[in-house]
Amino acid sequence: MVYNAMKLFMEINPQLFDDCSHEYTEQQNSAASREASRERRWAAITEQANRRKAANGTAGTGAGGPPGRTIPNPMPRLDEVDAAEDNQKRLDSLKLQDGDRRDRRPEVHDRQNSVGSARSQR
To answer: Which portions of the chain have biased composition (kind: Polar residues) (predicted)?
Structure first.
């Protein structure tokens, strides 16, 4: 499928196809240097962050990676706790409303499609 699309592209506009394939080849050849440049920039950003932390009087963690690799706070925030409690209360109220259904014995048609009844019939 990809081959057919590339062949069609080459037949429709050979000059643009050559330009795109040449650019792709150059991009692939320079991938290692781009990665090295990216690493140098991350190191410079990390160093700058550490200097700012030191200037503000806090110790640096030395995390040398992209943002988003920080250790999450294990303590949930207050609004998260409130939301969880609210959700639990809603769930409990739903269980109370369904209490009469749990106490009754399932009817014959309710039990016919259950996995347990199929196994017990064997």
So the answer is: 113-122
Does residue 23 lie within any of the structural domains?
Answer: yes
Distance, in Å, from the CA atom of 75 to the CA atom of 64, rounded to the nearest integer, reads 25
- 107 in a structural domain: no
CA distance 60 to 47: 9
Mean pLDDT (whole number) for 71-84: 62
Number of compact structural domains in the chain: 1
Are the C-beta atoms of 42 and 60 separated by less than 8 Å? no
Contact indicator for 117, 111 with CB cutoff of 8 Å: yes
3 is a domain residue:
yes
pTM summary value: 0.35
What pLDDT, in 10s, does the model give residues 10-26? 899 999 999 999 999 99
Specify if 83 maps to a domain: no
Which residues form the domain of 1?
Answer: 1-59
Is residue 42 a contact partner of residue 64, using CB atoms and an 8 Å limit?
Answer: yes
